[in-house]
Amino acid sequence: MTYKKDTQTERLLDFWRRYKKNRPAVGGLFVIVCLILVAALANHLTSYDPWESNFGEKLQPPSARHLMGTDNFGRDVLSRVIYGSRITLLVGFAAAAITISVGIVMGALAGYFGGIIENIIMRITELFMVIPTFFLILLIVAVFGGSIWNVIIIIGVTTWPGTARVVRASFLSLKEKEFVEAAKLAGVGNYRIIFRHIIPNAMGPVIVLTSLRVASSILAEAGLSFLGLGDLNHVTWGQLLYKAQLYMRISWWSAIFPGLMIFLAVLSFNLVGDGLTDALNPRLKER
Amino acid sequence: MREFLLKRTVQIIPLILGIICIDFLIIHLAPGDPTQMLGGELTGAPPEYQEKLRKVDKPLWVQLFIYIKTILSGNLGYSFVYRSSVFDLIMKQVPNTLMLILTSMLFSIILGIFLGVNAARKPYSLFDNVTTSVSLLGYSIPNFWLGVVLLLVFSLRFGIFPVQGMYLGTSQLAMYTRLIRTSMLEVLDQDYILTAKSKGCSESQVLFDHALKNALLPTVTVIGLNLGFVLTGSILTETVFAWPGIGRLMYDAIFMRDYPLLLGIFTLISICVVLATLLTDITYGFLDPRIRYR
Fold it and tell me: What is the dihedral of CA A56, A59, A60, A61, to 10 degrees?
């Protein structure tokens, strides 16, 4: 038992050694860890209430008191950005989780069983690959309303086909492998073969996709909020940017900083995705 | 070749039907009555349209069939806000959006080729490293935020109106640069490039005449597939810069709860994207004969 544990730590260390070589990816990971910490500790990081207005201090440029200035209600932009990280990251991770889990299940069904199931799922993914997803998200949110969970679910449900295609491709090759054959001969059920034997081996590309999906979900939410379709009851970076537009001419700071955070988060998740690709496929890098 | 054309054309039929089915699904799953959703208060709609809407008492599959037939005949519905046919409303805005999109595509493709080829000429040189990192930044930057920044920097501070097309092209530019760089590197590794060099061709001849021609092939596919992506960018761009295109129309439709118009825009744009991918496929078939026989 101890032996197995050793090889696992060994493998993780090995993975980290390869990941470490990609310095931008390490930077991206650092930024993400910081963002998660900021979101978790938001109430300890700022003494300003992000919702309470203070008209005596409205539209002030950045200063030592308000590092990112104040908005049209005199609220501290920095503390709003800090609190905004919570919902923004929630949207990113939750939507990515939905996309990835639906994608894995659909991809697994299509790749493992083949036949008519595969045919139907693949036709659906083809359709979703072609139609401009953001338009679809926009349309559905406009019709069904833009509460934060609606937005998360809609982003998740409309972007799974990409994952499904990747998972299916891995399944097609993995299901022919000897260990699957062995498991079948040992009388292991389909369900167990899929989830215990094949999926763990198909996770590589899925992990990369997860990182990219978090980035694209954050971007999608920001885009929706920017068009005024987000959830007005929650502070997200997209919301902040949307609300700042009206006062942009007199207060650049309330538009610049939230956007900069979106940019930073999206960039970091993309960089981590790049780094993971390199670390998971050492062969690609050597070329 | 004819067989290839026919096969590809037939393949888009289920896609177009699928798009219409998505519309149908949204109409029927939406909160409230489908009649209400498509007709608003029914006050402004002409009598024959109200008549049409009343067909909702028929079984669902009959409704779907009628719906598909209506859409395919070019009738995208009636906007009760503008009191005009959705198709006409969209067509009025098409030239503006097209102008925006074409400018951005031209800009990003030409500059992308230039940057990508030069980056691939000396891999890991200073130029290559700078181009690669900047293109990664360009790929991650939220398009609409960049617009806000440009508005702040240019038109509000210095009084220069930015060229929206160029700005819409930034993320595409980043993508094309990276793509052309990788495919150039791949092509430059091949034997026929060595042959060309040993024949005594000049560097630019090798790069542009021999290598680029083949390296462009993957880019051609991406250009077509990118149309949806560009259109998405254009809704946000048009909103930032108040450009009177389809994106702007959609933005207004959201606020006026003009669902027929929203559905119509989605349907038309999706069908256009499907047609664009078909066109890309066909172009690719012409450019690369190997594809046709697969």
Answer: 180
**Taking the model in full, what pTM does it have?**
0.87
Nearest CB neighbour to A259, from listed B148, B250, B262: B148
Q: Where are the domains of chain A?
A: 24-47+67-282
Angle ∠(A126,A130,A135) on CA atoms, nearest 5: 130
Q: Do B228 and A127 touch (CB under 8 A)?
A: no
Nearest CA in chain A to B144: A223
**CB within 8 Å: B140 and A270:** yes
Please give the ipTM for the structure prediction.
Answer: 0.84
Residue ranges per structural domain of chain B: 102-230
Q: In sequence order, which ranges of chain B are alpha helices (DSSP H)?
A: 2-29, 34-39, 47-53, 60-72, 86-121, 126-140, 143-150, 164-168, 170-188, 191-198, 203-204, 213-225, 227-241, 246-255, 259-287, 289-292
- Give pLDDT tens digits for B39-50: 665 555 666 666
Choose the CATH number for A24-47+67-282 among 3.30.830.10, 1.10.3720.10, 3.40.800.20, 2.40.70.10.
1.10.3720.10
Alpha helices in B189-245, H assignment, sequence order: 191-198, 203-204, 213-225, 227-241
State how far the Cα of A196 lies from the Cα of A202, in Å rounded to an integer: 11
